[in-house]
Amino acid sequence: MREQRSMLDLAIAASLAVLPVLLGVLLLVAVIRPGRDTLSTGDAAADDRHVSVRHVAALKTFESAIVRRDSADFAPPRAADADALLQALPECRRDWQDTPQPARVAAQLASIDAALQRFSTRPNRRVESALGIDARRWSDAARDALAASLEAPQYPGRSFRLGCADLAGAVAALARADARMLDALAWRGTVPAATLARWAPQQQVQITARHVMRRNPWSGLAGCVYLGAGGAATHLVAAAGAAQARACSDPAMRAASPTPLPPLQHLPGEPTTALAAGDARWGVPPSLSAMLAPLDALRQPSRGLYRLYTEPGTDGGDDGADPSAYRFGPNRLVLDGTPIDVGFSLQLTIDPALQALSQKTAACYTGDAPACRALGVHRAEDGGQPPGQRLLEGAMVRMAAVAVVDVASGRIDALAGALSPCARQEVDGPGRDARCDRRLPWAVRYRPDALLNPAVWHDAMPASTIKPVIATALLGDTPAGRRLLAAERSAMQRPGTPAPRSLRGELLRSDSARFLDRMLCLDGSGEQPCRRPWDVQAAATALGWNAGCGAAAGSEHCGRHDLLFGRAIDARADGADGGLVQPLATPVAFGRLMSEPAAPRLGAPMRLAPPRPLDPATVQRCAAGADGARGSDDDWEKCRGGRVVDIVAEGWGQGHARATALGVAGMLARIAAAANGLDAVRRPHLVERIHGVGGRPLDAAVTRYRLDTPQPVGIGHDAAEVILSGLSHSHREGTARTACEQVFDAKRCRQIDWLAGKTGTPSFPNDGTSLDELATLCHGAPAKRRAPAAAAKAAKPMTAADREAACSSLRPYKWYVAAVRSDPAGPWTKVIAVLAERNWLRATGQVHGAGDRGPNPAAEIALQIAGRHVGALTGALNSAPSGASSGASERRTERTPAMNPPTHPTPAE
């Protein structure tokens, strides 16, 4: 007899049948989704703590709109009032006219008002009286929010503007699920008296970021970020919340050390504008969270990649006793007697003291007068006045980017960057402050990427900073190279300034024309066919540039490196996957030279320029310049001739050549390491190690998260010494002498033997154009009266190409890179690279430091940092004039030739 089954029995059976399917789905989510996280670690949606500043600001419009329903002038919203809504919000008429949005928002406001009435009159209500939405107050608050500039502490230095879409999104979020969010908010009648004291008198509700940002209480604590010179964890960066601060301060969380570690110092977070002199945030690189974003997948216990490495596998391993190649096992810390999952911690290479010095100096030169006073910075030509008083905004430069690399280890000691207030407004919008000069040719346009740390996210034509690369090729293992090396080594035995026509003499004076003679085989060597341009390309690759440029089809990663571990972007990790998994990385521009677009279109991927024969007659014609005479001031200028013009442009450090401050520092650090006698060094890297609780390194189980192996330095010891010998005279008799005499006096500059540096000045079309002329040319402003010389110049016809160049996005940059000895008798220890955007003189409207003969503020910044680092500068510096200018001794060197445009498109600067 068949047993009768009830509906309950059938439901139970169905549930049992579905259960394996659900378990299978959960298993797929746990296994497959983490794999996706490893490829999309920057996805904000995957982060449990993501919140939009604009979303919060739009929601806060309800703080003044939610009022007591028994108010005398209370006017609730009505679902049919779409036209009234547009009249109350004329700012949104353009966006919402002829769309269903006004009706939708009006209906949602009415539904929120009805839900609020139910919420405030229910038996277990959390408020004092019945509440509702006053339509007039909400529209007033919405208009004020649309007109305001928003700032938030989690995005220092940035301002935001609310849009009508943000208002609509906030209304929709509050109306969702019958206004369920109302239960999560803070209400008058339930908040403590101390909180209520900070509210407006009639305020009924408070909406903050934490009300729309929820963190999974079971996800554990985020991993820690430690800084410290030499790889020791001495500083902790901004632990979020008391529990994480306690965990990160626990000795078990710091990496193991052979010597006792000092007490941990807490750094409250990334620097913002206008910091006090003693603020600890000077010691943290700007944009550090953006640099480390890919590693959030390991630092956050809620992320799939963390779970993949820490949760028990399906192979029967108990509690991680037998981890696989991609397993670490549990990573837990006992806090108050309870084991808590903790994310993996990062030990960074940043030296907080050197970072603070670099960041304060960059801020000082971009107009932060208190930072100048704190450092005691003075310049000779300013007398007793603060630096930059003769320039717009009182800033020596509009942008400063500083990178400091340790020569022996490749550790990045500092990544500093700052923008002057008006330069920041150009990319942060929405317009220029009244105090900013409106004659500047660059339009205001919101560019969040331009607000990131310029030491790693701002590249430019490297100009004459490539001369050490060219010199490396010229001193290579060829018959001519060996002869040149022997002659230079012999000359080094004689004291005094190198001869002008020697390689070292051409380096210290940055004689670009003579360098091009050597690079194009016009130095009397008789080498034909000339292969030296391709030797220069190979030298750039050996010194760390041109990574990822080898594919014939080009690559978007040409010239880029991983900031975190120093790997090439296309590198694959060893491990159980057979090297098929690409490591987590933060790709940043590093450097490229002798490259070209892989296709004749704007934005095409870049590749190494393939070797091609160069027509000797065309080379000779270019070398002679427009006047046809060799040895004159226009040698190599106005070059014409297809392929040759591209090679010459690269030889100037222009054309398609690009580098960042970090990349230029990394290049010279290789040369300095070779001069120290090292055969191999690590590429510049930011992350020293990733470790779990107890200091156990993650790379013991996961080989893809570790430093890359040391790479050959790419140059011989003797050749490296020759190059640095030439550069060590640059601040004495060469192109950096003017800058040195602004920081030190002339006598001390001649005595400095702990520095070897190279200047660079990329092409800028407006070195001889005033801001008044640019305003007329680019903005159509009425021309002011000009001096006779300026009027004569303006009378010359200007072609469309000239006008396009003058009003282009090209910026007036200056470069400087230097190797530094902490002990004058010891090895080279640090390399400092600075990229600066020159500012404009108030009196004349001319750009400061025009051409290669003028002052070089980038060199000044590096000298200020290096001088304090080695103890040569302390407190207030010289304020008296240093004597005669050295401009006459600075030969025409880093000239920016007016070359014809190449036949292929040139990428925007």
How would you briefly describe this protein structure?
The protein is built from 34 helices and 26 strands.
Biggest β-sheet: count, sense, barrel? Answer: 5 strands, mixed
Provide the low-confidence segments as ranges: 18-48, 314-324, 573-580, 785-792, 876-909
Q: Compute the separation of the termini in Å.
A: 87 Å
Strand content: 5-15%
Helix content range of the residues, please? 25-40%
Number of strands: 26
Main structural class:
alpha+beta
Shape: globular
- Provide mean pLDDT, rounded: 83
Radius of gyration: 32 Å
Strands side by side in the biggest sheet: 9-8-7-12-22
How many H/I helical runs? 34
Give a written overview of the molecule:
By secondary structure, this protein is α+β, with helices and mostly antiparallel strands. The chain contains 34 helices and 26 strands. It has a five-stranded mixed beta sheet with strand order 9-8-7-12-22, with no helix packed on it. A five-stranded antiparallel beta sheet has the order 14-13-26-25-24, with helices on both faces. The longest helix has 31 residues, at 7-37. It is globular, with a radius of gyration of 32 Å.
Essential attributes:
909 residues, alpha+beta, five-stranded mixed β-sheet, five-stranded antiparallel β-sheet, 26 strands, 11% strand, globular, disordered C terminus
Secondary-structure map:
Blueprint: H1 7-37, H2 53-59, H3 61-65, E1 66-68, H4 82-88, H5 93-96, H6 101-121, E2 131-133, H7 135-147, E3 149-150, E4 160-161, H8 164-179, E5 186-187, H9 193-196, E6 205-206, H10 209-212, E7 225-227, E8 235-237, H11 242-249, E9 265-267, H12 288-291, H13 296-299, H14 304-310, E10 332-335, E11 338-341, E12 345-348, H15 352-365, H16 369-375, E13 397-406, E14 412-419, H17 421-428, H18 454-457, H19 467-474, H20 479-492, H21 503-508, H22 512-519, H23 532-542, E15 560-562, E16 587-589, E17 591-592, E18 595-597, E19 606-608, H24 616-624, H25 643-651, E20 658-659, H26 661-675, E21 680-681, E22 687-691, E23 711-712, H27 717-727, H28 730-733, H29 737-743, H30 746-751, E24 755-760, H31 771-779, H32 788-795, H33 800-806, E25 813-820, E26 830-838, H34 857-869
Parallel strand pairs: 7-12, 8-9
Antiparallel strand pairs: 1-2, 3-4, 5-6, 7-8, 10-11, 12-22, 13-14, 13-26, 15-16, 17-20, 18-19, 21-23, 24-25, 25-26
Helix pairs in contact: 1-14, 2-8, 4-6, 6-8, 15-16, 15-34, 19-22, 19-23, 20-27, 26-27, 29-34
